[in-house]
Amino acid sequence: MNEHNTSGVGKKRAPLYEALLAYRDSKQRSFHVPGHKNGQVYHQWMNQSEGTEDALQKGIVDHTETGDILGREQRRQEENVKEGEQTVFSADYSLKDTDQSRHVVPVRAYLDMMEMDVTEITGTDDLHHPEGVIKEAQDLASDCFGAEESFFLVGGSTAGNLSLLLTICDEPGSIVLVQRNVHKSVIHGLMLAGARAVFLEPWVDPESGLAVMPSIETIQAAVQRYPEAKGVFVTLPNYYGMGADLTPIAEVCHEAGMPLLVDEAHGAHYGQHPELPVSALSCGADGVVQSTHKMLAAFTMGAMLHIQGPRLNRPLLRQRLAMVQSSSPSYPVMASLDLSRRLLHVHGADAFTAGLAAVKALKRGLAELPRFQLLQPADSLQQEPAYGNENPAALPGRQGYTAQDPFKVVIYDDTGVLSGYGLQQQLEACGCVPEMSDERYVVLLFSLGSTLQDAEHVLQALRHINVAYKLEHSLESTAPVRTASQTQTDPPIYVSTWNNIEDRERLSEPVAFSLQPIIERDTIVVPIEDCAGYRSAEMVIPYPPGIPLVYPGERISSKIAERIRILRDGGAKFQGISDHMYQKIKVMKPES
Question: Is 70 exceeded by the pLDDT of residue 546?
């Protein structure tokens, strides 16, 4: 930690944000980028078009009257919900009336932000060579999150993952031990580095069927077989908020002289409240990437990279960060990171009180709706999984899933009537937009910004969905119903966008990655139903969460082909597939 940042006065500061406020208030003339000149361009055009001094306010009024249609509609529907009625929300946020669109102008908040949208000028410091307010803000962040050094990221956790891999892979062909179901940015980092990945199969929770992280046994076997590996890269928590203590894995890595790198994109809040899981840094991880915008209070794309210990080449890391991040970073995004940190420094654990209260209110309400069950660690995890003997990667070391992020409320229809996709659609029709869903589960993401009203809105929606089901299905229905007890004993038979695992060895052979493109004339397009056995010519990425199912050059197994088809038919969205209808996939021509 940085000892000079531990004073109460220092923690209350937001040096970068304060510098932007001072710039705004100085009213200096801009003879530098950006071209909007503190938003001045919009003021000029609105004054010219309207021909009056109060054109800005009039334009905003016009915009409010047209652009706040959704807000008025939502308020009306919330009132109906309170009265026991239910209305259907639309997910189309566009203005249908072209005449309305002609009157769209920047709202006041947007123009206010433009006054703080600056570049590297005197007093605003430089992200790639920080000496002033950015350095001070990053030092405060390292104190807040328990790191030796912290770096602001304006390209999301993607920038952090890329820079870490480009740092440890200091020569072509470097071997990295990588959890199989990592975010696509990790794969892109391996490609940029020209690295070889030894993929580690994650342990699968037998209750939910969801992959968590590689077991301690798998990590031990990997570092013993590949002592020359440059490091170990894992993801924790997973997209569903599932995790466990990383300390044993960090110890194994360090004993082998390897750094442990953690994609903790969904755990920026970890360790900040007694009811939250511990952070990867506190478990001994050497490099940790956190999406501050996901679970804390920064703008989208605002993230941080935290490091500690002697195992990472910090000068090289700074160089890599300068390579993968823009030379014109967004100051509003960086200021939001500064403010998000200050919120935790000033309020501490109390910052999460309201959000946790909302989660507890939701859980109390769910107890009265037994149809909708929660994903959470089970005592049965202390026993060997039923199918663990067939798949060594499934052995959890009895620590595979011991922590659940309370802010990731993962629900499912215990009757089996609604899939996760179907439940998400019905929730959205009631005005509740979940984070994601798969064939079985729906992820409801709460945070320190959530309220009791949010919890009540979800509960009202679930009550409505439950009542509608009872009206449509009589008690004499012969349709099969999945009970809670069956859920606990039956093997999971659904498909998750998070899992990309098969019955493979727990360690793969080294898989080479490069930037060499696939030659178009060597490819053909086949229906997804017929793609098994071919080598893929494109990356297949269900999104969210962005975990590749297939890499370019990888042979498509029958199980993966079936998984792609099931996800597609269930309504999943994909990145990487050139056919936007998801009917066909590009593969390599069969070798003659």
Answer: no
